[in-house]
Amino acid sequence: MRRSAATWLRRVAPALVAVALLGAHAVPAAAVTTTPGDAAGNAYTRDSVRAATWNMCGEAGGEYASAPGYCPWRNGKTNTGQKDPAGNPIYEYLGPEKKMKGVAKLINERNLNAVMLQEVCAGTTAGDTAGSSHLDELAALLPDDWTFASAGVTRPDEPYEEPERSEVELIDQEGSDCRGPALTGTLSIAIAVKGQITWKTEKAFHTPVDAGLSMNSGSVLCVEVAGWESHLCTTHISNFDKDEQEGRLDQGKAKELYDQQIATTADVVKKFPSVVLGGDFNTGNRDRIQTLYSLMAECDQRSYLPGDAANETTKFNRTNETLADPNGPDAGGYESYDDTESKIDYLFSTGGFTGCDSATEYGDRTNYRLTAQPQCTMAAKNCVAGDEAYSDHTPVYGYTQGGPTLSWKLDGSADATSGGSGGHTGVRTGGADWAPAEHGGALLLDGSDDTVTQSGPAVNTAQSFTVSAWIKVDPLTTATSAVLSQDGERISGMILWYNATDSSWRFGMPRADADGWSVDQAVAPGAVKGEWTRLTGVYDAAAGTISLFVNGSKKATSAHTARWSASKSFVVGRDLVNGAHNAHFKGHVQRVEAFAYPMRDDQVASYAGSMTAPTGKKTALQGPEGELSQGCHVSLDEFGNDFGTTGSLTPTLTAKVRHPDPSKDVWAEFSLWDNTSSTQILTLGTPGSRSLTTVKGQGTVSLTVPALTPGHSYGWRVRTADQTTNDTPVSANCHFRAPAA
Questions:
Q1: Do 579 and 641 lie in a common domain?
Q2: What is the rounded CA–CA span in Å between residue 726 and residue 705?
Q3: One domain, residues 416 and 472
Q4: Grouped pLDDT means (10 residues each) for the chain, 741 residues
Q5: Residue 623's Cα: distance from chain center in Å?
Q6: Which end of the chain is more exposed for a tag (fewer CB within 10 A), N or C?
Q7: What's the CATH number where 120 sits?
Q8: Structural domain for 706, as ranges
Q9: Which helix (H) or strand (E) is 16 found in, with range?
């Protein structure tokens, strides 16, 4: 049904055109596989997506605990226990707000920057004078930097499936009206992000819309976010098995309809080099979604810490039956929610994950028996859900592998001691100074009291992480020198250092925050003083190992199973032993980085030894107001939508480039072609393709392109280059349209 867009669209920041760079716990059958994530070994160049998927069961089904498919706070109708003068129950309609408070709580507790929601209401139904939508309520609970997109879902009681509108819509206006006195808007799937959504697309499943069937007809919704290389997609797959079992569909038709939805979803996500997909897939049989497992890593298929369970419950079910004994203590009451559990909600990513969990505490496990709630009878219908019961589904959340949470160039520039997604900033202490002529600019430490310190931790030493630094030990020093560490109360929780006794590189983690020296160590002999060296330490908490890499090559591995969290200062230039500062570094240090996951061997090798494809958004190519970017990773034919439009016939293309060696000059080479006339304008490595500027080690470079033909569409890509090699990874293709004359 058509309706007007909600007034909360004010919360969706003005559209802009941007061109981007960039059943029960089932044991997996043998056919189910998953990629490790980031098969190309470059996921660490992307920002981490911290996302959750959650079916809120917000609109349909029974209003009371006796009804099939009941979910707490559904339709927002709650019995207050009071009655009006005529003796009728008095109700409150707090459901939309209650459910979205659960979403906001999850976001804050888990530090999420994206949520994918199913069975929610979005926008406003024309003619409604009361009620609210779930996305209205969520927008009111989150800061203004959150934006939203939705796609309508059609219930089987609609007489037809309404065609998509042609104009740009962040809030979809197709789909079924939400039901219930507390609700308004369109039944939808939705994505909310902490950032600016610049483009969205949806691909309809076109499953039957028939009042005789039990399931909805939906779509795959995908969005692009300014500054994010990864796209986000969500869906709600319908399972028609019940319709087939009860004779409403011919034999085999349910499987056919299900497989079509999975195939459509796979076709959509394959169009994005980097994507996070979440949703309700309505199956506990993972063989049925084998195609998705072959394309992406599924976050909860493995554990990330000792004791962390895999394949956890995401759905609580019950029988919806009254108790058998009519004279028993619970006569006339309802079954509790502890009958069966299943996993039917999934979170996938092309970039792999650093951690994942099903937040089962957010699911409804309320005891509705009369012994627990005497007022919960079929006559009174005054059952009260628990305070933390938001849905019969539980949210699945995970963090994708991404760029460094701490990234300090330590090169003497204005931002030498800041950078990374964690917002970490260091302060020089003692006489720490800059050596601008050393290896492209480096930090000079005197071995006495010089450090760069931030007041809090950069990694969780009880969980997996990676730390890395370029160093040059003073050739005249005879003392052990700690490159970096993170303080506990009595000893550093992790230390990367040069050991003077036997001229070795070492990465160690103490077994306890205590005095003395009980430290698990990975030792690489043959350390050379006076020579620039890249050291990388990796802790894999699930495997219980620490590893040391020298110039990208693994040199040593040791067991470390005594996990504890050192939660004080992250320090460059010393460690902490017996509560005292120790082993001050003498020499030069640069490009210190920390990651919130354990890099694989090939990732360390790639990060330490080869240039990466240019990443990071973005250049805003502003078009007429109301247009949305079609993204860096899609072309005109991919989704049937138009390109974003530049604001000039000579736009400037921008890329972030990075060399593994901070002392090297690096630039970008651009390729540009005319899609309309099939004309190649710039070719990688040819005159005119090189960026106007060169940077030392890493930075942002750009190129203003030759005059374009008005109204033509264009594609472009870019690669990093230096003086010695041009054989480097290339970015994804980007597309835009030149403005009309």
A1: no
A2: 21
A3: yes
A4: 35 31 35 70 79 92 68 72 83 84 96 96 81 93 95 82 63 80 89 89 86 88 84 95 91 95 94 91 94 94 86 80 54 54 93 91 84 74 82 95 93 94 93 95 97 96 97 97 98 98 98 98 98 98 96 98 97 98 98 95 89 60 45 53 73 87 94 94 93 92 92 88 78 81 77
A5: 28
A6: C
A7: 3.60.10.10
A8: 634-737
A9: none
